[in-house]
Write a structure and sequence with these properties.
heterodimer, A: 167 residues, four-stranded mixed sheet, B: 67 residues, alpha/beta, 28% helix, globular
Chain lengths: 167, 67
């Protein structure tokens, strides 16, 4: 639609016309603020916690596991220097003294969710799929936060209760 | 020829004072739009509705995604 609109506007005498091809879906998926009726719905990005156990691909598995364990986590999110999520390390069944690097044993390309998705939708998905946590990333894969199931459910209940009282 | 831009270029143009236009149907604009964007649905884009835009400033149009 926007390419057609851009050409139409040029035909109406406008000379400096651009079109943002990826649209508002891209804007919202990048965690950018939006206006409108849906802006009052709690999103995954807003309900997620910033803090989570993280490690680098070339970290020794033992070090990464120790860091995650001290944070009370059963896994470590693997990110690069640009905070792009590359994988997830579940260390429970791994040989921690082997000198192996994280990137050799991590789960590459873990399922992630966009920050603009309503938390109610993600909470339901997490319950149906027995997920305790869900990494939230932008459309470029950049880490935004970690959504935990209790927080997702609590935020979703608040949204539903708020909708009910407002009707 | 209209120029395609990405999100970073859009932010730069917005900082420089560009006019941002949402060409989706009005209901979709009401649901969610980029802050500061005005609504001119594609079906309503005409010489009359375009008059609210300045020809002296850049105009950026967008819809939902790669439609």
């Amino acid at each position: 639609m926007s390419p057609r609109a851009a050409w139409r506007l040029e035909s109406l005498g406008f000379s400096r016309v651009y079109h943002y091809v990826a649209g508002v879906a891209d804007w919202a998926a990048a965690g950018m603020p939006v206006e409108g009726n849906l802006s009052s719905v709690t999103t995954a990005g807003a309900a997620a916690e910033k803090e989570t156990a993280m490690c680098r691909p070339d970290d020794p598995v033992g070090e990464a596991a120790a860091q995650a364990a001290s944070a009370g986590e059963d896994s470590c999110l693997v990110v690069n220097d640009h905070d792009i999520v590359l994988g997830r390390l579940y260390y429970k069944d791994l040989e921690l003294d082997s000198g192996v690097k994280v990137e050799d044993v991590m789960d590459p390309g873990p399922s992630t969710f966009r920050p603009n998705v309503p938390v109610l939708e993600i909470a339901e998905f997490m319950r149906q799929n027995d997920l305790e946590t869900a990494p939230i990333t932008t459309s470029e894969g950049k880490y935004v936060g970690m959504l935990r199931l209790p927080d997702a459910v609590q935020a979703a209940r608040r949204d539903v209760a708020g909708r009910g009282s407002g009707d | 020829m209209p120029e395609k831009i990405d999100r970073i270029q859009l932010q730069e143009l917005m900082e420089a004072g560009a006019q941002v236009v949402d060409v989706l149907p009005g209901e979709e604009y009401e649901d969610q739009h980029i802050p500061g964007a005005i609504s001119i649905p594609l079906k309503q884009l005409s010489p009359e509705t375009a008059r609210q835009l300045s020809k002296q400033r850049p105009v950026v149009l967008y819809c939902y995604d790669y439609q």
